[in-house]
Amino acid sequence: MSLNQQQLENLLKSSLAVYCYDIIPSTNQTAWELLEKGEKTPFVVIASQQTAGRGQWGRKWESSEGGLYLSFAISLNLIATDAPHLTLCSGVGIVQNLENYDIPVQLKWPNDLVLHKRKLGGIYTETKVYQNRITEAVIGVGINWTNSVPEIGINLHSLNNCSIVSLEQLAAIAIDGLLSGYDFYLSRGIEQLILAYIAKLQNYGQTITIDGCKGIIVGVNQQGALKVFLKSPGASTEICLPIGTISLGYDL
Ligand code: ATP
Q1: Which GO-annotated molecular functions does the record name (predicted)?
Q2: What is the dihedral of CA 45, 193, 228, 137, to 10 degrees?
Q3: Would you say residue 38 has pLDDT above 60?
């Protein structure tokens, strides 16, 4: 299957510059260097391998040959506290696009792409803030294609009858997903985006334990924080856990 008409139109309309590299430390880092040099946004950086790819906790992102490693650089004007919106809309856009290829991918809060309970990919957003406004953002995306993955990971190549046939096609699907997710956020706003995000959230309704207290995941708020309903005998309350305060982990 090739790109559909809408995806092709989106890519052409965006007039995106795409910079391709072989082995670099990280696509996010190269994107920031290009921005420093005054490169015109939006643009995309793609590498065949990364030697220092990172996830949101600063942990290493395994980036051997065969995987998709890209960063999308944009200029924008967003209040600093809205930075999580960029991760949410990117996740929604990419998941919706992969679903169009019959890949049953979901989101794990806040920034993982999950397939068959394993980690297929991740999104790592970095921003530049000036006077409390985000002026530039780099959204990094890693998706496992044929590359080797850690135990909790999975790659698309391991699927039977995967309808995506090449790394190039996967790159186009991911870039189109980033553009359509961002467009959805700009045109429909954060409330609609959160509804779309929750619809793809694997953790929705999941029971978790916080400080010995059992709770149920009931959503995500406007800052991307996880909403958890805690119920104990005689009392119940809803709390919000900001991004970066807990990791939901993988139960294999
Ligand atoms: P959270 O679950 O809160 O997103 P995280 O554990 O996913 O946190 P990140 O920093 O986002 O942390 O991602 C890095 C982690 O992802 C690594 O510690 C490793 O467990 C896993 N990982 C690294 N490379 C890959 C890969 N190519 N595919 C799947 N998982 C990977």
Answers
A1: biotin--[biotin carboxyl-carrier protein] ligase activity
A2: 30
A3: yes
Q: Is 149 in the pocket of ligand 1 (CB under 6 A)?
A: yes
Q: How far apart are the first and last CA of the chain?
A: 32
* Chain position carrying tokens 């007039």: 15
Cα of 131 from ligand 1 centre, angstroms: 32
- Whether the pLDDT of residue 214 is over 80: the answer is yes
> Can you point out the beta strands (E) in the chain?
17-24, 43-50, 68-79, 106-108, 112-115, 118-130, 133-143, 207-210, 213-220, 226-232, 235-241
Q: Is 109 in the pocket of ligand 1 (CB under 6 A)?
A: no
State the average pLDDT over residues 151-167. 96
Can you name the residues that pair with 172 across neighbouring β-strands?
A: none
Are residues 26 and 110 located together in one domain of the fold?
A: yes
Which ranges constitute the DSSP H helices of 200-230?
none
138 and 154 belong to one structural domain? yes
CA angle in degrees (0–180, nearest 5) for 85-174-108: 50
pLDDT mean over 126-140? 98
245 touches ligand 1 (CB under 6 Å) = no
| Residue 153 tokens, joined | 């990971």
Full domain range(s) for residue 215 = 207-241
